[in-house]
C-alpha cells in the first residue's frame, strides 16, 4: 500500500552538492523511522542516515557526518538528504526505506523501499 519514490539524483563534480527527496504515498504513521541507504555496483547496500517521524532524531553514518544532512516534512510525508562536499566514493544508487524492526543500520530492518535514484560524482 505504501509507495516510496526517490528523486533528485544526478551527475555532479567532486565538492558539489545534491538534494535528494523521498516522497511517500499511503500511510507511514506506523513506521518509527525512515532511512537512506546507498549501493554502488558490486557492493553491499550501505546505511547512510535515518530520521524518526515523530521527534526528528537523526543518525548518520560516520562516512557522511559533517557532509550530509537528513530532514523530514511530516505534513508532506517526505524525507530529504542534503549532500554537500560530495566525493567520488559517494557514487551509488540511493534508496529510502521505512523501518520495521531490528538494527537500524542494516537493510533487513526495513520493509518498504523506493526504486532508487542514481548519484554520480565525478573526480
Strand element count: 11
The computed structural class is: mainly beta
Helix content: under 10%
Radius of gyration: 13 Å
Strand content: over 45%
Distance between the termini: 40 Å
Q: Enumerate the spans where pLDDT stays under 50 for 5 or more consecutive residues.
A: none
Tell me the overall shape. globular
Number of helices: 0
For the residues shown, what is the average pLDDT? 94
Spell out the helices and strands N to C.
EEEEEEEEEEE
Main β-sheet, in a few words? 7 strands, mixed
Fold and architecture overview:
With 123 residues, the chain is an all-beta fold. 0% of the residues lie in helices and 52% in strands. It has strands spanning 3-7, 10-13, 18-25, 33-39, 46-52, 58-60, 68-73, 78-83, 92-99, 110-113, 117-122. Strands 2, 4, 5, 6, 9, 10 and 11 form a seven-stranded mixed sheet that branches. The mean pLDDT is 94.
Topology summary:
Blueprint (H helix, E strand, L loop, with lengths): L2 E5 L2 E4 L4 E8 L7 E7 L6 E7 L5 E3 L7 E6 L4 E6 L8 E8 L10 E4 L3 E6 L1
Parallel strand pairs: 2-11
Antiparallel strand pairs: 1-3, 3-8, 4-5, 4-9, 5-6, 7-8, 9-10, 9-11
Please summarize what this structure is.
It is built from no helices and 11 strands.
What structural keywords apply?
single chain, 123 residues, mainly beta, seven-stranded mixed sheet, four-stranded antiparallel sheet
Amino acid at each position: 500500500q505504501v509507495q516510496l519514490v526517490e528523486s533528485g539524483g544526478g551527475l555532479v563534480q567532486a565538492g558539489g552538492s545534491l538534494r535528494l527527496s523521498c516522497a511517500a504515498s499511503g500511510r507511514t504513521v506506523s513506521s518509527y523511522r525512515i532511512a537512506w541507504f546507498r549501493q554502488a555496483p558490486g557492493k553491499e547496500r550501505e546505511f547512510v542516515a535515518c530520521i524518526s517521524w515523530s521527534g526528528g532524531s537523526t543518525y548518520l553514518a560516520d562516512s557522511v557526518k559533517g557532509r550530509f544532512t537528513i530532514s523530514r516534512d511530516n505534513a508532506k510525508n517526505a524525507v530529504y538528504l542534503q549532500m554537500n562536499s560530495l566525493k567520488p566514493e559517494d557514487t551509488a544508487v540511493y534508496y529510502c526505506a521505512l523501518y520495521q524492526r531490528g538494527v537500524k543500520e542494516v537493510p533487513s530492518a526495513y520493509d518498504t523501499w523506493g526504486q532508487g535514484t542514481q548519484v554520480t560524482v565525478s573526480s
